[in-house]
Specification:
By secondary structure, the chain is mostly beta strands. It has 2 domains: 6-106, RimM (Elongation Factor Tu (Ef-tu), domain 3), CATH 2.40.30; 121-179, SH3 type barrels, CATH 2.30.30. The chain is 5% helix and 44% strand. It has 2 helices and 14 strands, in the order ββββββαββαββββββ. The protein has helices at 89-93, 117-120; strands spanning 4-6, 24-34, 39-44, 57-60, 65-75, 78-83, 99-103, 114-116, 124-127, 132-141, 146-151, 157-161, 167-171, 176-179. It has a 6-stranded antiparallel barrel with strand order 2-3-6-5-4-7. A 6-stranded mixed β-sheet has the order 12-11-10-9-14-13, with no helix packed on it. A two-stranded parallel ribbon has the order 1-8. A hairpin with a 4-residue loop joins strand 2 (24-34) and strand 3 (39-44). The relative contact order is 0.18.
Length: 189
């Protein structure tokens, strides 16, 4: 079993559903207009940029304004995007520095054992004996595997690698991650 997580960032500006899961997830940020045909540069914040295609609805800015994507093409390390109703440089410039979001309910399904970062942040972490180690406060993406930053009430941090030998169970319904502490992870163990 792998414990991979994917970036679809929730953001402080995004709405939350009653279950605590955000209603919107940030997938990018709009930069400067490109050319005169209404294209704008978009920085990508998602592992699934292929879902951003003509016809899809995204939500722009803090008002979650729904807009249809009309055109997408690769550009440098991001995308050039066009939206319905924004066919000129001046009009699309109004969107500069806005966040681009999708509904959480519309996010792609992940394979078994894979989780979105926003699903893991805030989960309580316990060891094999049930001792509470803290909560996941951040996730480092190292390339080889993610690393969960776990912080306790005193502010002490523990770095837990997201590997099969360390992560025993992730239970989203119980809001808990059960871990096996590898030697050297805690200074007093």
């Amino acid at each position: 079993m792998t414990f991979k997580s994917s970036r679809l960032h929730d953001d402080n500006h995004s709405g939350s559903s009653p279950s605590g899961e955000p209603e919107f997830l940030v997938v990018g940020k709009l930069g400067k207009p490109h050319g005169v045909q209404g294209e704008i540069v978009m920085d990508i914040y998602t592992d699934f940029p292929e879902r951003l295609k003509p016809g899809e609805i995204v939500y722009i800015g803090a008002q979650f304004r729904p807009v249809h994507i009309t055109k997408v093409r690769p550009h440098s390390r991001g995308l050039l995007v066009s939206f319905d109703g924004y066919q000129t440089r001046d009009k699309v410039a109004e969107l500069r520095n806005s966040l681009v979001q999708v509904r959480t309910a519309d996010r792609p399904k992940l394979p078994q054992g894979e989780y979105y970062h926003h699903q893991l942040l805030g989960l309580q972490v316990v060891d094999e004996n049930g001792t509470i180690l803290g909560h996941i406060t951040a996730i480092l993406e190292t390339g080889a595997n993610d690393v969960y930053i776990v912080k306790d009430d005193k502010g002490t941090e523990v770095l837990i690698p997201a590997v099969e030998s360390a992560i025993l169970d992730i239970d989203l319904e119980q809001n808990q991650v059960r871990v096996h502490l590898l030697p050297g992870l805690l200074p007093d163990r």
